[in-house]
Amino acid sequence: MNAVIQDIDTATARVATPSPSVVPAAAPSTGRLLIDQVSIHLGQGADRFLALDSVSLDIAPGEFVCLLGPSGCGKSTLLGALAGHLQPTGGRLSLDGQPVIGPSPERGLVFQHHTLFPWLTALDNVAYGLKMQGVAKAERRARALALLQQVGLGGFEHRYPRQLSGGMQQRVEIARVLINQPRVLLMDEPFGALDALTRLKMQELLLDLWTRLKTTVVFVTHDIDEALFLADRILVMSPRPGRFIDELPVPAERPRQPELLTTPEFGRLKRHCLDLLRHPDSTLPLTRLTPLGLDPIAPADPSAKGVAATQARFAV
Ligand SMILES: Nc1ncnc2c1ncn2[C@@H]1O[C@H](COP(=O)(O)OP(=O)(O)O)[C@@H](O)[C@H]1O
Ligand SMILES: [Mg+2]
C-alpha cells in the first residue's frame, strides 16, 4: 500500500451519520430477484460448454445472499447474467416481475477491481451516474458528497483514484453504484484484492450501508468466513458446471460483530461449508446440523440438504 496515502481503512475514521433525505432507502417491497432454472453455455463451437446447470433461486426484497463456490464454478457468470451482461441459454431471470434483458442502473455491479475513471475526482466519479441522468450539477455534487461521507470518505472528495488506497477506491466504487439507488447490488468478490484487515473493515461498512438502505445484495465469494459474516443465506455451488448444492440460512443476529468469527457455532457452519466444497458430489456423510443446537447428528441423509438442516442459533 502506498505509504503517502492516508488510509482510512486501517485508521480510526467512522462512517458518517446516515442522511436518509439524500439517499432514501429502497422500499423493502422492491428488489425481488427470481432465478428460474437458469442454464448458461459459454464458448464457441467445439469449445462450447455448460457453465451453469439449471439453477433456481428466489431472493426476497432486501435479502443479503452470498453465492459461495470454488473458482471457475460459474459465480461471475451468474452475476453477469443478473447484471444483464449475458443472456442465459435457458430459464428466466426477473427483477420485481420484469425480465432481465440488459444492463440497468437498477442492478448495480461492483467488481474486485474498481471501474472508476482515472481522470475524474472521487466526487465526479460518484456524481457521474447522475450526470448521465441529466441531474443538475449542484444537486448531483451534493448527493455525491453525502454518499462519500456515508462510505467514510468525507474530506477525500477531490482525490483522484490513484491518490486513494485500494480500500478507499472500493468505497468510491460502491458509492458510484449506490448513487443510482439500485434495487439490487451485485458484488463480485469486491474485497478479494484487499488485505485482511481492510477487507474486514469493508465488510462492516457494507453491512452498515445495507442495514440503512435495505437494498437486495447478491454477493459472490469463495471465502467461507466472508459469506458467513455477511449473508442471510448462503448458496453453495458445485464445481463447473455450477449448481446449487446446499442452501444455508445464517441466523446470526444483526448487527454482526467480528467476534462472531470466533464463536463455536460459526466454526461448525464453516466446517460444514468446507465439507461441501471439498466433497461436492461425494456420497461421504457430511456433518449435518440440527435445528437447535448445531450438534452433529447421524450421517447425512442426502435428501435432507437445505434449510431445515441448518437452522442454527448464534450467541455472540
Ligand atoms: N467468456 C467466456 N468464454 C469461455 N469460457 C469462459 C468465459 N467466461 C468464463 N469462462 C469459463 O467459465 C467457467 C466459469 O467462469 P466464472 O463464472 O468466471 O467462474 P467463477 O466466477 O466461479 O470463478 C470457468 O471455467 C471459466 O474459465
Ligand atoms: Mg469470478
Keywords:
single chain, alpha/beta, Rossmann fold, 2 domains, 6-stranded mixed beta sheet, 4-stranded antiparallel beta sheet, 7 helices, 28% helix, 19% strand, binds adenosine-5'-diphosphate
Q: What features would you describe in this structure?
A:
Helix content is 28%, strand content 19%. The chain is built from seven helices and ten strands. The strands form two sheets. The protein has a six-stranded mixed beta sheet, sandwiched between helices. The chain has a four-stranded antiparallel beta sheet with strand order 2-1-4-5, with helices on one face. Helix 2 packs across helix 3, helix 2 runs parallel beside helix 4 and helix 3 (137-150) crosses helix 4 (166-178). The model is unreliable at 12-26 and 290-316 (pLDDT under 50). Bound molecules: adenosine-5'-diphosphate and magnesium ion. Magnesium ion binds next to helix 1.
